[in-house]
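for the record, two folds in this file. i put them one after another cuz i was lazy. first one right below, seq on top, structure tokens after. the second one comes after a little note so u can tell where it starts
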Amino acid sequence: MKKVLLFFGGMLLVWSCEETQKKEPISISPDALHAAIDKVTEIMIHDIFSPPVASRIFAYPNIAAYEIIALQNDTYRTLSGQVTDLTPIPKPNVEQTIHYPMAALVAHMELSKQLIFSEQEMEHFRDSLYTSWETKDASLFNTSKTYGLQVAAHIAEWMKKDNYAQTRTMPQFTVRMEDETRWQPTPPAYMAGIEPHWSKIRPFLIDSAAQFKPVPPPPFSMEKTADFYKELEEVYDISKKIEKDGDASEEIQIAQFWDCNPYVSVTRGHLMFATKKITPGAHWIGITKIAAKKTDSDFDKTVYAYTKTSMAIADAFISCWDEKYRSNLIRPETLINQHIDENWKPVLQTPPFPEYTSGHSVVSGAASIALTDIFGDGFQFDDDTEVPYGLPVRSFESFEAAADEAAISRMYGGIHYRAAVEVGVEQGRNLGTYIMDKVQMTSKQPIAANEN
């Protein structure tokens, strides 16, 4: 009898231990979100997404995650009714317990998986987290996962109506070689102009793609006294000075640090292949991570920071691409080879789209305004975003200073004229300021007159 009692006592102890293991608290730190976004960036580099498309891939999953955390954190306000055509996400079942950070990550990973090509890479990362959570508390995991997927489905339906699918079937950009002012494909790959219809993508917060239409570039003229020719000559002169100073020059280091061109082609004999690099938007998403970690931001604030910044970046690309294919301006490389030095090559490889305005300048201006709004002015940080790609850390005294350097890097790289850089960063800052004034994401912001 004693043996039987001991046996059942032992079994009860085992069951008790198993139950304790199942109910181990699930704690999700901001590092889990950073890791998820890093994984998405890594996959985008592998899949070679264009800079505008990459900005879309960042924005939608962040919004899904944000809407979930805003549902249970009074510090944050829903984007429904603020972001174009976004309706309220489904409410969770009141009879079920939801782990909101877990549900937010589930929604983020599900939407990310839908937006990339290499889905299996995202699934592998996701499944490792799923296993960890399910092992700790299967019931909580299942309710949170179900809700996260429900929200992801809601955001996916909204996402499908942003005209992206329609632009996939629109005609390619037509090059008119007889017009010397218009953009032409550049070496070595001579790629067609990417995303000529990106201005048709539904914006997140700006009223239209043309809302921040910049002033036109200087009138095209190859007269040596013309402002346009002087800007062309300036690009050439800067490159020759940099060339004389060598690879250790500060200008070359700046140009390389902010290159962010996923289309760089390398020719070896008869072979041509692409090197892997992040996009301008991905660089600023990396800076968002740096700022969030430096300030020890909690999970919810980290989601908020990524969401606000990624929306500014996405709208900046829509605004910039609207102007690029309107002005359709030829790149410095083409004109310098035709009129000044046929053997000249820029420090950076020229990206495959029209020149004006500078995409990196517009995006950097917008992102710097968003990050300043979140983390404050004069925010010093060490930017290690490019370390995985063989480039050293650079330090900045503010987000604005980083944006200014990103902008001027395009001239140092020989791929933009001065007007595209200076007008571009102003275009981005104006757009970013408008977005920060318009969107109300925290309870500290004043309530708009039409908000109930």
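(here's the note) second protein begins now
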Amino acid sequence: MEGDSLFVLTAEELANEWKNEGFNVERDVFVVETSDGRLVGSEEFYNESGHYKLKADGCVHPEFRGLGIGSSLLEKMTERAQAELKLAAPNVRVFIQSLINNKDEAGHNLLKNNGYSLVRYFWRMEIKLQETPPAINLPSGIELRPFIKDEHAVAVWQADDEAFRDHWGSHDRTFQEWSHAKFGNPNFDPTLWMIAWDGNEIAGFSQNRFRKGIGWIGTIAVRRPWRGKGLGIALMHHTFGEFYKRGTAIIGLGVDSANLTGATRLYERAGMYVAGEFSLYEKELRMGES
């Protein structure tokens, strides 16, 4: 399946993914080789949450498409998922998801032919700064403070989990899971994390990093009590400014196109545009209450 280069993991990022608790390379990675040992296809299986939210992520070399390799790999994903769902709570709905570039017609057909249904669209948005971003205007009582990992990590994790409960498909993560994803990322840079405080409470944050030559907004959110006060756009402008000072004019992020918190409107207001669209497919493996 075709992809967007910015959404393809680097070797270092993939290595960190494979260090997730419960992931077993020998059990969860499937590869297809030619008789002379050339790798022409692969698929990875991930338990995203509670053994019920599962993910398949793979590709087939362009020269070997149309030979049934993709379908064979997806069959292996289903087999692997059937074993995993036995560990899920008895009344929980179990499903497996796969994300593809919306321009990938062969990928659409492959997933549909293997029992997957389109459920959601996601966007990659970006901005190319032509000049220094506008000065930020923080709401009254809000201040930005440097992120100190040992002192602030737990509070940011709690704020992160709470802020994203409004988002489709979200689930709470343990501090260990969250820490591994954030601090284990090879591009983690604490000086690019913008944390907005209201006294001793976190009002919002923008967790950023450099990735593949551009600035990347990994996670940005404002907690409910502080929404609608201009904090979101202030965090965007401050983030833009930090990247611009460091010599980066192109900044990107990924977002659910149907985000209920109005994030896409905020990003457009900040000057970002849709640079790529992705389709999320899902295959139900077991019906349940949720």
